[in-house]
Amino acid sequence: MATTEKINVLITSAGRRVSLVKNFQQHSNVFTCDANPELSAACQFSGKFFKVPKVNDKTYLDELFNICKKNNIKIVIPTIDPELLILSKAKRRFKDKGIMVAVSDYKICKTFSLKTNTFEFFTNSHFLTPKIITDLETAQYPLFAKLNNSSLSKGATKVENMEEALILKKKNKNYVFQEYIKAPEFTVDVFINKNGKTVCIVPRKRLEVRCGEVSKGQTVKDKTIIKNIKQLCEMLKGAYGVLTVQVFKKGDDIYFIEINPRFGGGYPLSWLAGADFAKFIIDDYENKTLNYTEDWKDNLIMLRYDAEVLIDGCGI
């Protein structure tokens, strides 16, 4: 019986994303790249890895493009926020060589790269979202402060009073202050195909967070969250592939916090629950039909832990 040859996929800024590499290896030949691949755990698990400049280096895009051409890469998977704008802007260049960059359009990435733009989108689209507070003197505390362009919750903190808020503002003018919502928080993994159709929605309750990433999570087939996310997706023209949506659920109200158009750190829970986004991406590239599905395990809990990867350090 003839077998279909696996296509080549490149995961960029691979870092610690071992589970993501393993997921794609079920369906493709996986290559990785990183600024320090010798010290990247994910790179040690891939078939081959490449050293590339940092994302903000002016040669980064050309290096990545050349790697793809030389190694017959068909799909590029971005994993960190700083590269989303760069790669979304270059999608046409890669597509002309038969390479799909699995990321939303530039407009989507630009909108959700800043907390203020995200707030405006949710507000203008009539979704509930924590209000941005500009008058720190008359504000009702506590507030929640975060850097306007931060990722992985860097700089995010609860602010108990005006004095703390003013100290943060003096420390960094890029801080944005929002009303504090005390309610369960969910990360929702979403997949949208190249025709703009929503294929899968997996809410994950954040049970415990470490360094901005979920360390303990639980899949929840919450009908209210899923309904709201479907409505959101209808308004995301130009969205493609994986979206990670952060929400609070307060009673029956859903408060939208932010959207990251990439794989989230807690995605392995969705994959292991049965929502295989890696397969969705490859099937979509190969023009296979993708129908909406909720065929994933409800109430599955993930408990993350650190593991070790040992390498010979003589050559580093």
How would you sum up this structure, described in words?
The chain is α/β, with parallel strands linked by helices and 316 residues long. It has 3 domains: 8-103, 3-Layer(aba) Sandwich (Rossmann fold), CATH 3.40.50.20; 109-116 and 182-303, ATP-grasp fold, B domain (D-amino Acid Aminotransferase, Chain A, domain 1), CATH 3.30.470; 131-179, Dna Ligase, domain 1, CATH 3.30.1490. Helices cover 28% and strands 26% of the residues. The chain contains 11 helices and 14 strands. It has helices spanning 18-25, 41-45, 60-70, 84-89, 91-95, 106-111, 115-124, 162-171, 223-234, 267-273, 277-285, and strands spanning 8-11, 29-34, 48-51, 73-77, 100-101, 143-147, 157-159, 175-179, 185-192, 198-210, 213-219, 241-250, 253-260, 301-303. The strands form 3 sheets. The chain has a 6-stranded antiparallel beta sheet, sandwiched between helices. A 5-stranded parallel beta sheet has the order 3-2-1-4-5. The protein has a 3-stranded antiparallel beta sheet with strand order 7-6-8, covered by helices on one side. Strand 2, helix 2 and strand 3 (48-51) form a beta-alpha-beta unit. It is globular and about 60 Å long. The relative contact order is 0.13.
What count of helical segments does DSSP give? 11
Strand content: 25-35%
- Count of spatially separate domains: 3
Largest sheet: 6 strands, antiparallel
CATH class of the largest domain: Alpha Beta
Please give the number of β-strands.
14
Q: pLDDT under 50 segments (min length 5)?
A: none
Q: Just name the CATH architecture of the largest domain.
A: 2-Layer Sandwich
Helix content: 25-40%
Global shape: globular
CATH topology name of the largest domain: D-amino Acid Aminotransferase, Chain A, domain 1
